[in-house]
């Protein structure tokens, strides 16, 4: 078969529509993950053993199981428990947010532990509680350090959004599959899909590299 890349301009609008959903899923997923991960990450370094145990179980379970299985649990398994179907978009957001939260938690934990312990001792010596010291002194410094790895987590989640095609959400990959049923040009279409992913991830990686230089912490 002779390759025909002249079809790309004609299919590009459909692929870009799928790209919009892909970016939306990744952004919301990382936002949810950041909220969950910040809470769980702080819990991972808590002095309370029960809190450390619960957050540790969550992180180990999520990181130890595939995102696809988690997606199936939410989309196919959860309805049997609650007695009603879960919309595909909601299931995708929930699964990706919960999944991202576990990885963000480890990023946050490492960021907190990278801050000199003397900072906490100094904060406590001037009368701040442990919670206040974490909120006003430790976490702001840790957050500055974790922005670059958070960018890498966004890149990883952006690529993993392709899994939502299995529950019929028309993300970039699913749009490509639909286009193939009309054009019968799988190589050209999948190459276009791959290049769009590459453009997105490369752009984000350059932004992450720039932010890493700007936010570099000198100890």
Describe this entry's structure for a reader.
With 219 residues, the chain is mostly helical. The chain has a single domain, classed as MetI-like (MetI-like fold, Orthogonal Bundle), CATH 1.10.3720.10. The protein contains 8 helices and no strands. The N and C termini lie far apart (59 Å). The mean pLDDT is 91.
Write the layout of secondary structure elements.
Blueprint: H1 8-44, H2 49-63, H3 67-82, H4 88-114, H5 117-125, H6 130-160, H7 172-183, H8 186-214
Helix pairs in contact: 1-2, 1-4, 1-6, 1-7, 1-8, 2-4, 3-4, 4-6, 5-6, 6-8, 7-8
CATH architecture annotation: Orthogonal Bundle
Terminal Cα span: 59 Å
**SSE order, one letter for each helix or strand:** HHHHHHHH
Sheet-strand content, in percent, reads under 5%
Keywords:
single chain, 219 residues, mainly alpha, MetI-like fold, flat
Q: What is shown here, in short?
A:
Helix content is 80%, strand content 0%.
